[in-house]
Amino acid sequence: MVMRAFPMAFGALRRDINGMVRRAKRNAVLSGIAAVCFATAYVAGVVAAGAYLAPIYGPAMAALLIAAIMLVTGLFFVSVLSFLKYRDRKRKARSQVAKQLTVAAAVSILPQLTKNKGLMITAALGGLAFLAAQALGDDDEGGG
After folding, report:
1. What is the H or E stretch that residue 143 is in?
2. Cα atoms in the 13 Å half-sphere on the side-chain side of 123
3. Which residues are within 8 A (CB) of 144 and not within 5 positions of it... i.e. 6 or more apart?
4. Residue 1 host element (H or E)
5. What is the DSSP string of 16-52?
6. CA torsion angle for 41, 43, 48, 49 (degrees, to 10)?
7. Tens digits of residue pLDDT in 74-108
8. pLDDT single digits (tens) 29-87
9. Four-residue CA torsion sign, 66, 70, 76, 79
């Protein structure tokens, strides 16, 4: 009975993967088209701002004004990104300290658990599960 369930499970898994790939391709194509539209709108906006400012300040001053505004805007976004990376590093450091405290607490309890063989096996399995969860958790956290 179990042997009959494996092909059905693998078939369902394959359908799920095919659906995920199809959605990813669709999302990539639509996101690319949207990015081209946004880039075109941005360039048109910059050109329109230059055309509007040129009669008022002259072409050179209008270009410098637009460049200065873009420079300030870019620096603002870089500073926001820098702050977010700093906050993530601090959060990751706190998380790392918490993990170390958890491991230290588990290691300090280990001698009491090793007196009983059943508890020792349970502790070993729990430790393996903990290490597996730690390995999976490190991949999800990312890093700057």
Report:
1. none
2. 17
3. 85, 88, 89
4. none
5. HHHHHHHHHHHHHHHHHHHHHHHHHHHHHHHHHHHHH
6. 110
7. 999 999 999 999 999 999 888 888 777 777 776 77
8. 999 999 999 999 999 999 999 999 999 999 999 999 999 999 999 999 999 999 999 99
9. negative
Q: Which two tokens stand for residue 144?
A: 């700057």
What is this structure's pTM? Answer: 0.51
DSSP letter assigned to residue 63: H
Cβ-based neighbours of 83, under 8 Å, separated by 6 or more: none
Give the pLDDT confidence score for residue 86 in this predicted structure.
Answer: 94
How distant is the alpha carbon of residue 58 from its chain centre?
A: 45
Terminal CA-to-CA distance of the chain, rounded, Å? 48
Comparing 124 with 90, the larger pLDDT belongs to 90
Rounded to whole angstroms, the maximal C-alpha distance in the chain is 88
The two three-digit tokens of residue 7, written as one number? 């092909």
Reported residue count of the chain is 144
Banded pLDDT at 143 (limits 50, 70, 90):
very low
User: Which helix (H) or strand (E) is 85 found in, with range?
Assistant: helix 59-113
